[in-house]
Amino acid sequence: MNSIEIRELTKEYGRTRAVDHLTFDVLPGRVTGFLGPNGAGKSTTMRLLLGLDRVTSGTATIGGARFTDFPDPLHRVGALLDAQAAHGGRTARDHLRFLAAANRIPVRRVEEVLEQAGIASAAKRRIKTFSLGMRQRLGIAAALLGDPAVLLLDEPTNGLDPEGIIWIRELMRGLAAEGRTVLVSSHLMSETAALADHLVVLGQGRLLADSSMEEFIEARSTPKVRLRTSDPVRLRAALARDGFEMASADDGRWTVEGIRAEQLGGMAAREGIPVLELSDERASLERAYLDLTADHAQFAATH
Ligand SMILES: Nc1ncnc2c1ncn2[C@@H]1O[C@H](COP(=O)(O)OP(=O)(O)OP(=O)(O)O)[C@@H](O)[C@H]1O
């Protein structure tokens, strides 16, 4: 009932197709990373979900209904889209009180979310004096105000220091563990890998991947082992019989592509060849993501 359903969603701005027949679901109880290079259509998808922009075709719904049809939207969905949007002349507390009053949210929630976002001590300061990281925290406090079951966070780690990034990771995991639906956009694979359970990857408005983080890593890492042996001649010959090639690495070790440590270790044991060190190597996730999105980024850059 709190899933996000995107169906054949398309958005055109003049001749630019920002979102192109996009279909995917975001399920509760886990953190879904929404990835894609700049301009891939992540923010547009979130804006369409929140009814801030009109769809060209297709639908974007939450639990089967459109955001704009909810009588109490902030109780259902909390969003962080543009952390700069808050009125700079107000204090953080007043900003949240104003939001609470406008949405019939009990005022005690203001103190709770100030605390939760780690900005209680800055509650009386004017927002214009806030650093980017503090504005992000205030934006997150505002998103949490209505205790919503669904959270949409667009690049929430922007401007946060390493401590802030760890904080937001824990926060999102906690919210997902409570059974909420959490969609977090980022253009950084490394950051997303550390916080998401599931991935939706966009390139040029289209869906490139929709899978668990585990499957994404598994599907995109070519097996490769690195090893040390006291008998490279016999090992090379044994591997060659099975169609594998042993290549020398610059640190005196050897690498073999297309095989896993378990398989190679078993084979060497059967042949009685001493293996002194043996480990699996994986393609970096960052590399896999860049390869996946590269064509789309290039295409976007030339249009
Ligand atoms: N209001 C608008 N008017 C015209 N074009 C727009 C508008 N909003 C977005 N676009 C275009 O739509 C495409 C998708 O942009 P969008 O901001 O959704 O991407 P994004 O994946 O969120 O990227 P970023 O990481 O840079 O925020 C881009 O080509 C962008 O220039």
Automatic annotation (TrEMBL):
Taxonomy, superkingdom: Bacteria
TM spans (from-to): none
Nucleotide-binding recorded as keyword: yes
SUPFAM superfamilies: P-loop containing nucleoside triphosphate hydrolases
Protein name: ATP-binding cassette domain-containing protein
Pfam families the UniProt entry points to: ABC_tran
One function term, GO molecular function aspect: ATP binding
This protein's record includes keyword Nucleotide-binding: yes
Family assignment from sequence similarity: Belongs to the ABC transporter superfamily.
UniProt keywords, alphabetically: ATP-binding, Nucleotide-binding, Transport
SMART domains listed in its UniProt record: AAA (SM00382)
Stored InterPro entries: AAA+_ATPase, ABC_transporter-like_ATP-bd, ABC_transporter-like_CS, P-loop_NTPase
Ranges where the ABC transporter domain occurs: 4-229
